[in-house]
């Protein structure tokens, strides 16, 4: 039977993940200051809290989702990612949000969230059959096209989100 993606995590599970604090004492302060969704959980040391994945910083969410995928868990729920650079402008602007989905299967082309030098980056990807390489493209002409034999795909972009006017 296939497991679902885990949604609730204790501080012990989250310490040090994706830039989160290394120690429990500073962890609970960060969670409180950033208004993370939490619920009470009966732990080994009495009452403790679990935090919902949607409240965590995007970098921690990606790491946790990819851990679950590696162990065979699935999800049908998309995640929201905020664009960090202008490489895909004018199509997708810096600061804009996109919906991404798991598992990240390459289907021949499209927009993907890739791990580039261990940093999540949104890029357009095309498979070039004649050369047996992937073209990693940016819509912004100031960024070069890269040609690579292997990709580390974190997620596929399924929609660009814009505010309702």
Give a short synopsis of this structure:
The chain is an alpha+beta fold. The chain has helices at residues 11-14, 24-33, 58-70; strands at 8-10, 38-43, 46-52, 79-82, 97-101, 109-116, 119-128, 133-137, 146-148, 153-161.
Describe the structure.
It contains 3 helices and 10 strands, in the order βααββαβββββββ. With 165 residues, the protein is an alpha+beta fold. It folds into 2 domains: 8-70, Orthogonal Bundle (Arc Repressor Mutant, subunit A), CATH 1.10.10; 79-161, Umud Fragment, subunit A. The strands form 2 sheets. Strands 4-5-10-6-7-8-9 form a 7-stranded antiparallel sheet, covered by helices on one side. A 3-stranded antiparallel sheet has the order 1-3-2. Strand 7 and strand 8 (133-137) form a beta hairpin. The longest helix is centred in the middle third of the chain and has 13 residues, at 58-70. The mean pLDDT is 81.
Topology:
Blueprint: E1 8-10, H1 11-14, H2 24-33, E2 38-43, E3 46-52, H3 58-70, E4 79-82, E5 97-101, E6 109-116, E7 119-128, E8 133-137, E9 146-148, E10 153-161
Antiparallel strand pairs: 1-3, 2-3, 4-5, 5-10, 6-7, 6-10, 7-8, 8-9
């Amino acid at each position: 039977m296939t497991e679902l993606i885990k949604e609730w995590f204790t501080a012990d599970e989250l310490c040090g993940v994706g830039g989160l604090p290394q120690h429990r004492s500073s962890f609970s302060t960060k969670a409180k200051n950033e208004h993370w969704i939490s619920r009470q959980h009966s732990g080994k040391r009495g009452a403790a809290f679990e935090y919902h994945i949607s409240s965590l910083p995007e970098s921690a969410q990606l790491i946790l989702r990819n851990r679950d995928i590696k162990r065979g868990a699935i999800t049908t729920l998309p995640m929201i990612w905020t664009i960090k650079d202008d490489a895909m402008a004018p199509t997708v602007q810096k600061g804009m949000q996109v919906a991404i989905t798991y598992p990240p299967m390459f289907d021949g082309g499209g927009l993907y969230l890739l791990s580039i030098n261990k940093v999540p980056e949104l890029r357009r990807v095309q498979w070039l059959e004649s050369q047996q390489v992937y073209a990693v493209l940016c819509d912004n002409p100031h960024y070069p096209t890269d040609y690579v034999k292997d990709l580390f795909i974190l997620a596929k972009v399924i929609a660009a989100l814009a505010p309702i006017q």
